């Protein structure tokens, strides 16, 4: 009996020692490891793959560049790539997996607002950081998201002003049937009403939809002289083919798109997109040494035929903003990086971008491009100064972001 008791006590002691060592190992894993993991979460399959695959590529390029210069805080950055598959529950599942299983310190990803809203509760409840690279509808500001794309006042609203300035009087709204187009068009309708111009139609199609004959017939019958397009993904191919076959081409009917950039233009075809407009904060055709170097590096890595675009550029500089915040904080710890990132700037291909400490949105410029026959956009309008984001447009809400620690999450 005494021998048995001694054996049991010895076993308990060994287990206790092992447990203590395990706890110590987990709590010091950041300092013990020679790498630090980040997540890359984009749709690499499904209807949104046409847009998101290159955002993934740009993120990985930025990570490789940082690693080539010695890494970050003495560690190499290891990217864990996951496919959201154009499916919102999958995005939630993959975000949870990246944080819980892979122990990533930040995630770069999402495109559609539905995917972002699907993962937002995950990042807030688990206190991790998401860097979101795409323009969106606003009405959101989370302390766990850094928005490197545009808010409505940095893209949608000035684009509407531009068309009104051209003398357009009859507007038709088309979009994919999910969060971004529905909310964006609510803001647009308020803008049109205030400006005293006519809304002659509003139509939506499911994300991934390919048959647009009925929708385009309604556009044609309405007599619209301007179309505001919030259709996303490869659905734009079918839409613009129908527009062209019905004679609804520029300058007869001007279509201003908010989710078509150089990548999508290449997929749709320049023959049916020529002279149509799109609103962004970056174009591949921008002059400047920084942009030229960015394009050269991107094409050297992924192919001479590759184009760059706004979400690609925002995905790219988002990694650098995070890296600058990490260096400023001196740690990868979420709370300290989040506190450090307010006011952080980076000399991006589009110009110097800065994270607003009040909203976690990027202060950026605004441009309008006209599609040309070479598969690029000629810049026809550009603001003189950078624009601070207003994620809650006064046209539709009185809600305001007050302080970094009290950012509205809904």
Which short descriptors sum up this protein?
single chain, 410 residues, alpha/beta, Rossmann fold, 2 domains, 7-stranded mixed β-sheet, 14 helices, 15 strands, 18% strand, disordered N terminus, disordered C terminus
Architecture overview:
The N and C termini lie far apart (64 Å). The longest helix has 26 residues, at 2-27. The protein has two domains: 34-150 and 286-365, 3-Layer(aba) Sandwich (Rossmann fold); 154-280, Response regulator (Rossmann fold, 3-Layer(aba) Sandwich). With 410 residues, the protein is an alpha/beta fold. Helix 4 (88-100) packs parallel to helix 5 (113-125) and helix 13 packs across helix 14. It contains 14 helices and 15 strands. It is globular and about 65 Å long. Residues 1-31 and 402-410 have low confidence and may be disordered.
Topology:
Blueprint: H1 2-27, H2 29-32, E1 35-42, H3 49-68, E2 76-83, H4 88-100, E3 107-109, H5 113-125, E4 130-132, E5 145-147, H6 156-165, E6 170-176, H7 179-195, E7 198-205, H8 213-222, E8 226-230, H9 235-245, E9 254-257, H10 262-268, H11 270-273, E10 277-280, H12 289-302, H13 310-329, H14 334-341, E11 345-348, E12 351-355, E13 362-363, E14 367-371, E15 377-382
Q: What's the short version?
A:
By secondary structure, this protein is α/β, with parallel strands linked by helices. The chain contains 14 helices and 15 strands.
Structural class: alpha/beta
Helical content (DSSP H or I, runs of 4+):
40-55%
CATH H-level superfamily of the largest domain: Response regulator
Number of strands: 15
- Our count of helices gives 14
| Largest sheet descriptor | 7 strands, mixed
Mean pLDDT across every amino acid position: 90
Radius of gyration: 24 Å
Query: Could you say how many structural domains there are in total?
Result: 2
Q: In CATH terms, what is the fold-level topology of the largest domain? A: Rossmann fold
Low-confidence stretches: 1-31, 402-410
The ordered string of helix (H) and strand (E) elements is HHEHEHEHEEHEHEHEHEHHEHHHEEEEE
How much of the residues is beta strand, in percent? 15-25%
Cross-sheet strand order for the largest sheet = 7-6-8-9-10-14-15
- Report the top-level CATH class of the largest domain: Alpha Beta
- For the terminal residues, how far apart are their CA atoms? 64 Å
- Describe the global form: globular
CATH structural architecture of the largest domain:
3-Layer(aba) Sandwich
